[in-house]
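S2.1 Query sequence (Precorrin-6A synthase [deacetylating])
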Amino acid sequence: MIALSLIGIGTGNSDHLTRAAIRAMNEADLILLPRKGDAKSDLIDLRRTICADVLTGETRIVEFDMPKRADQPAYLEAVVDWHDAIAAIWMEQIALHLPDGGTLALLVWGDPSLYDSSLRIAQRLGPAVEVSVVPGITSIQALTAAHGICLNRLADPVLITTGRQLREKGWPKGVRDIVVMLDGHCAFQTLAAEGIDIWWGAYLGMEHQALAHGPLETVGPDIIERRALLRERHGWIMDVYLMRLSETLSPPA
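Output structure tokens follow.
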């Protein structure tokens, strides 16, 4: 039997770890760290730093190479195939490093329940793997904390969506406030910007955290330019943003 612990590690700052996360890391026999290529070497470096900061026992650390997702029009099919490939690698690593069973930990950016597929991939591992989750600070929490704002307006809902959904379907119906994640192409530029405010953040909680806030029509172009420069400088970028319609605008019905 393998006990798999999916541990939310926040947005890359070891100060974001809960005591439960630190305990789970130290109780694990093995921690697997994914390598995603030279362009994203900072990501594995951050995971290595987190391990160095909090591990006090004999937990083993093993690194493995992540498969690449196929670039094809059928997005969902490509993601399913990619998840299958990741699950197969996890099983290979388990068989190699925990042949007699034990406790495995995987460090998940943010929280395993929010726009992360570790839980879906773990479902492919079969009944011999018992999965538990240690929640972590999400990029949404880090964004609102960095800007010093509430996520929701008084008694109003907030919708969480993706850049792909915003680009393909426009502003969601019936809501004034939306959070957009996984947006690699600044989908907000497809909107009519007048009457929309944006709160944007990248590398939240890290040394090179970047923030911007203001009317979308004036701040949006700056975010696009700044994001491109940051991505070029660091080789990768993780960002998220909140947008709000003004009280004078009605959301799509």
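The beta strands are 2-8, 30-35, 60-65, 102-108, 129-134, 159-162, 177-181, 196-202, 210-215, 239-245. Residues 75-97 form the longest helix (23 residues).
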